[in-house]
Amino acid sequence: MEMKLTDWNELHSGLFKNTCAEQLEEEVTYLHEVDTTFYAKVPQEIRRCFFLDGNAVNVLLELVSWRMLDSGRKREVTEWFAINQQVMALYLGLSENTICSKLKELQKKQFIEVQRRGRRNFYRLNTTLNPYLVLSEALHAFLRHVYSKSNYDVVLEQMEDLDKEAYREKQDLFREVVAMAVLPTIRNKDFYQPYARRIQEDIRNAAVDETGMLSLVNYHSIILGLCTELSDKIERRVRLLDGTAS
After folding, report:
1. Which end of the chain, N or C, is less surrounded by CB atoms within 10 Å?
2. Is the pTM here over 0.90, yes or no?
């Protein structure tokens, strides 16, 4: 399978947009105009990654935005940069302990690289394909398949009134089962880490073509195993609720 890594360069080019007209010194500054000068684009696969909590996402995006500009100069994606953890804590409203913990988590999960130089830490975005993002996106694809609502209304329109309620109850029960079976499972490290390690090994052995695309040889078999395991858990939960579990 061919997959493209997170395009930090594309994020780099459109990160900052000026939303305020230049004001003269004698003009009044209104409350709604304060701190609205910049905004940052958030890559979808990072924002909704199952394996990063909200604080980890915020710390990662703070690193992204901090790295992009250096006194007005745009840095290269591969440049090392320094940022004080206390500054990050102030910007994000988090404790320094939380910042430190999330930086270590991001390094362990290969979102960033860290170098110690004297008394300062320098950071760099890891531009290789991240196994946790690959796994997270595969899980989202699985959930879209088993939790689909695309034809829900169409099916109801074709039913008699007496059948609609039974159909709704059945679909609502199945969706509840999916949530009960899948969400606790994918938050369990014992479940997802073996898959992440296998995907990481597949990424290490992948070939990169001239367009920057990676060909992952074992991706389909890894994800098939993932989907099969989750499907089995859903099926067991359905049988349990139906009273037919063996």
Report:
1. C
2. no
